[in-house]
Amino acid sequence: MKEYTAAVVREGLGFGEGPRWHEGRLWYSDFYRHGIYSMASDGSDEVLELEVVTQPSGLGWLPDGDLLCVSMTDQKVLRFHGDQVSTFADVSEHSVFWANEMIVSPSGYSYVGSFGFDLDARLAELGVERFIAEPPPSTNLVVLDPDGAIVQVVPDMAFPNGTVITPDGTTLIIGETFGSKLTAFNVAANGTLANRRVWAPLERAVSDGMCLDAEGQIWFANALTHQCVRVREGGAITGTVNCSQRAFACMLGGEGRSTLYVMTGSSSDRFEIAAKTLGRIESVRVDVAGAGTP
């Protein structure tokens, strides 16, 4: 197992989420600065690309270049065409509490998850020990076609969070944060999912945002710790990245897609951090380049 240590390349975020490497820059949402940002590979030249007055999360691009973004609190997916913004899809009927993570496939199908419950309120009510002992409610994964129509609703997901699609487009792997596993599906030509199975069981880890590398292994942020973890199918851990604070999402980008960027923060509790700018972006060069989507 190889161990790396990340360095801080940018500070002053509220809560960074949904990192994506796109057209030579790292793009990301910031919950509490209410926008979609991008930066150069070294952390410089941060640009507010688009304002999102609600709370932005998952990002992805349609084949025509339009950007999609999850609007968490009103449970919608927004579409940005130049300066024009419209509602691409309303997933509120199938989202339990806030909408959250999303991935958009190269063919234009979108996969949108939700919390399933009010995470911060439940933790405050139960405390950590009872929270862990009592499995929280499940939710759905919503599949949208390239026009924004709902084509499938996958039930019984334990906080779907962090998603990758293999380079050949045939397999989607998603983290179930409170299910202690990464779950795989076969992807049909019409974007729908089948053959649900455990890709990797996780012990003592709470998976958050993640990305795929060229050896078919996954880097995921372990949201309980200051680490990202590299895991192969079956669950064997092959690498770790140590960060300065808790890790919540990661993305392979930079030159040759061999830099792992990590969105970190002191907490994910909105009652604690919504008015602060303690979020960071940290990075480290790793041995295996990124692959697949995002």
Unreliable parts = none
- The CATH superfamily name is TolB, C-terminal domain
Distance between the ends: 25 Å
Q: Within the largest sheet, what's the order of strands?
A: 1-22-21-20-19
CATH class: Mainly Beta
Compute the number of helices. Answer: 2
Order of helices and strands: EEEEEEEEEEEEHEEEEEEEEEEEEHE
Class per helix and strand makeup:
mainly beta
In words, what does this structure look like?
By secondary structure, the protein is mainly β. It has one domain (2-285): 6 Propeller (Neuraminidase). It has two helices and 25 strands. It has helices spanning 119-133, 270-273; strands at residues 2-5, 7-13, 16-22, 25-30, 35-39, 47-51, 56-61, 67-71, 76-81, 84-90, 99-104, 110-114, 139-144, 150-157, 160-165, 171-176, 181-187, 193-201, 207-212, 218-222, 227-231, 237-242, 246-253, 259-265, 279-285. The strands form six sheets. It has a five-stranded mixed beta sheet with strand order 1-22-21-20-19, with no helix packed on it. Strands 2-25-24-23 form a four-stranded antiparallel beta sheet, with no helix packed on it. A four-stranded antiparallel beta sheet has the order 3-4-5-6, with no helix packed on it. The radius of gyration is 17 Å and the shape is globular. It starts with a strand and ends in a 9-residue tail after the last strand. The mean pLDDT is 95.
